[in-house]
């Protein structure tokens, strides 16, 4: 169900998207990669157990180091870096193998790109973003291909502030499915549209300026 509160679509010129849970779903691939990584870590004596599905899902939307501390809080930071690299390499391999784009997203982006400039604003690395946008022609619709890795950000709000610079201070709206997206937009002084997903806990989208049940509802909200 769509919930509109303070959102004013007038004069919006740029629409910035989160990736996972908003435009793509890599959850099954992520679970498999974490399983492989922790299998090796346990074998090497660097971890005691596999992270749960809930623990993995709770990291979605976090910067890489923050996420790794969540799933392996007792692991030394030097080992974090070692296993995070293995994780990233395995995940990038999977991202190159197939598309994880949610149904209807390529068409949705092409439609919105007729009216707005589109951007990504993700906490991911450059390789991950490149692999996502390579699929289904997504890159053709995205004017500003930004992520934490490409701008050296430690917080998503820094990615959004870079977008503000690159787009010339035009009116931007953020679209995402987690509280981290809502908080980042608020920190950057931008309105934000929440998208309901299976990864968010109840209440995570309460502070969004509008909430839609599905990404497919976005054109109706922005163009209707």
Largest sheet: 7 strands, mixed
| Outline type | globular
Q: Considering the protein shown, what is the CATH homologous superfamily of the largest domain?
A: HAD superfamily/HAD-like
What does the radius of gyration come to?
Answer: 17 Å
Give the total of beta strands. 7
Task: Report what the structure shows.
This protein has 224 residues and is an alpha/beta fold. It folds into two domains: 3-25 and 100-223, HAD superfamily/HAD-like (Rossmann fold); 27-97. The chain has helices at 27-43, 53-58, 64-71, 77-97, 105-113, 126-134, 148-151, 156-166, 179-187, 218-223; strands at 3-4, 14-17, 117-122, 144-147, 172-176, 192-195, 210-212. A seven-stranded mixed β-sheet has the order 1-7-6-5-2-3-4, with helices on both faces. α6 links the parallel β3 (117-122) and β4 (144-147).
Key features of this structure:
Rossmann fold; alpha/beta; seven-stranded mixed β-sheet; 224 residues; single chain; 12% strand
